[in-house]
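Project standup — Tuesday

K.O.: blocked on the structure for the chain from last sprint. Re-posting the sequence here as requested.
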Amino acid sequence: MSTLKCVTYWEIVLLFVDIITMVNNMELRRFGVSVPGDLLNEFDTIVEEKGYIGRSEALRDAMRLYISKYKEEVEQAGGFASLSIVYEHKPNLMTKLIKHQHDAEAHVISTMHVHLTDTHCFEVLTIQGTPEGIKRLSNNIAGLSGIEYSQLFTFALPEYAEKHTH
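H.V.: unblocked you, prediction finished:
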């Protein structure tokens, strides 16, 4: 059998003061975001399906997930990574991709390039280097205009110091 706890009027007042203080300390900021219409329509469908009150809370959840994923990637130590990207097939973008790969501190060991459609390509880069160098290359590529998806997977091998030969 559960017991009820009697609280005084002042305990309730203090509880509400704590709640109001917490809400006031959580400063919400408005900002504008430009996105393609089809992306917004798909996002709105998910917002509705998941029962969000509106886009704002769904976007906050998406931002929290993005930040958490980023922190997880940064904390993974290792000398190797694969970077998977999907992008629009544009000569200017491809030139920038190649320049970033050649100028990077991390070494791009190999690439695999696939033409998905007439307009989009999928590329996987195998990278070796310090975690910082790998992350820097990944961020530089992900930030290029025209890159639509970017996923970094980092890993360490116990025999990293040993050379592999065929």
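K.O.: great, moving the ticket to review. The chain has two domains: 32-69, 77-155. The beta strands are 80-88, 107-115, 120-128, 147-155.
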